[in-house]
């Protein structure tokens, strides 16, 4: 009996040599380990739910990890953005004007174009929309004709093809244009009352031409304006 009670490790050899069949050894894990492991299982379920919530609330193109990575802003890109936003805050600007402003600040060409691309993508730079707004202001507030408007748009660095397209889309009714021309002529003629007729005529004609008007419509407007002002 004593030999049968010997434990493995007290003598060399295997169990098979002893002819003793060992029962499986009891678990050496602490009694609470099984409960801890069991407690861990629901956590993976919660993690999966959290992941599903994140996917549900993800913004396409922004939070999508499978999308193209967004470049980290650099010092140069942040400076370009600050310069551009400051310029747009002060006044409306064309893409060409913003490009000139960024270049004047010493920014590299690639940083300039990257910022302009960003501004176009969010709608802060749009030469066609800019030209449309400027045409309306120049007609209504400045009383300009199309020739002066065209020149002004080019001076604001709007591309020629954009200028042509916008003016073609915003063609004025002839009567509306004639009424505005006459209003501008009448207003100016009232300031020329002390001049001789020929001098007043010459000055008023030159003024209207600088406003972007020309042709027989100017001559007719000048005659009418001088007559209304009592110059003759």
From TrEMBL:
Gene3D superfamilies the UniProt entry points to: Winged helix-like DNA-binding domain superfamily/Winged helix DNA-binding domain (1.10.10.10)
Keywords: Cytoplasm
Basic and acidic residues biased stretches: 37-56
Flavoprotein as UniProt keyword: no
Limits of the RecX first three-helical domain: 82-119
Entry's transmembrane regions: none
Region Disordered, annotated ranges: 1-79
Record domain RecX third three-helical: where: 179-222
Residue ranges occupied by any RecX second three-helical domain in the UniProt entry: 126-167
Pfam families cross-referenced by the UniProt entry: RecX_HTH1, RecX_HTH2, RecX_HTH3
Source organism superkingdom: Bacteria
Principal location: cytoplasm
Entries under InterPro entries matching the protein: RecX_HTH_1st, RecX_HTH_2nd, RecX_HTH_3rd, Regulatory_RecX, WH-like_DNA-bd_sf
Compartments (UniProt record): Cytoplasm
Swiss-Prot/TrEMBL GO biological process terms: regulation of DNA repair
Gene Ontology CC annotations of this record: cytoplasm
Protein role: Modulates RecA activity.
Family per similarity comment: Belongs to the RecX family.
Protein name (record): Regulatory protein RecX
Organismal lineage: Bacteria, Bacillati, Actinomycetota, Actinomycetes, Micrococcales
Gene: recX
